[in-house]
Design brief:
Rossmann fold, single chain, alpha/beta, 222 residues, HAD family phosphatase, 9 helices, HAD_2, HAD-SF_hydro_IA
Length: 222
């Protein structure tokens, strides 16, 4: 029987309902150049880094601005939205975190967001107390869908991959978890258009489904 020891959470769209802020800020920056972008186009960047997002947008829309200036403008717009609009946790996730912590599991965050943004959200929602480790794409050589950030968490906490479950929502995040040879739960937020989560081992649509019993059963099915 495999013993589950570590649960790794993505942040955006899994712990924090923040994807809408990224998409809104991206659209606003694109519109400032007189361009338009579809929701599907913006959703395709979920789970990727700011370097990748803005490098792609700069190229796709032939924007006459340096990448560094574009990223600077985008970050300012994103922070403005975070400061002026309310950040909310994903429904039921705080109770899930509390129950998993009480059950004795190690909990970690592994996100493509910048460390500054991760800590801002976790502090604002009073979630920092639940986590043993936080890793950002800034901490590793390659971002999702490369497995680096998940492997870095497992190595630092000294947990073999077969004792780990990852909870992700994006296509790239799920691919990263599977590339790390970890079990992956895909969280399908019904408030957003569906994205490809077919690589996940199982898909849920409510965080209350994640109980110690559910996770142990999932680990021992593998």
């Amino acid at each position: 029987m495999t013993q589950l020891k570590l649960i790794i959470f993505d942040m955006d769209g899994v712990l924090v309902d923040s994807e809408k802020f990224y998409m809104k800020s991206e659209l606003q920056v694109i519109q400032s150049f007189g361009k338009e972008a579809s929701e599907d186009y913006l959703r395709s960047f979920c789970g990727t880094t700011q370097d990748f997002i803005w490098g792609s947008i700069k190229k796709d829309f032939a924007l006459d601005i340096s990448l560094e200036d574009l990223k600077f403008n985008a970050k300012n717009q994103l922070i403005y939205l975070f400061e002026t609009e309310e950040i909310e946790a994903i429904e039921h996730v705080e109770k899930t975190l509390s129950n998993l912590k009480k059950a004795g599991y190690l909990l970690a965050v592994a996100s493509s967001s910048e460390r500054e943004i991760i800590k801002r959200h976790l502090i604002e929602l009073d979630f920092l107390k639940y986590f043993d480790l936080i890793k950002s794409s800034e901490d590793v050589a390659h971002s999702k869908p490369a497995p680096d950030v998940f492997i870095a968490v497992a190595e630092e906490l000294k947990v073999p991959t077969e004792h780990v479950i990852v909870i992700e929502d994006s296509t790239n995040g799920i691919k990263a978890a599977k590339n790390a040879e970890m079990i992956c739960i895909g969280y399908n937020n019904l408030n957003y258009p569906p994205i490809n989560q077919e690589a996940a081992d199982i898909i849920i649509s409510n965080m209350s489904e994640i109980t110690p019993e559910f996770l142990e059963e999932l680990v021992n099915k593998k």
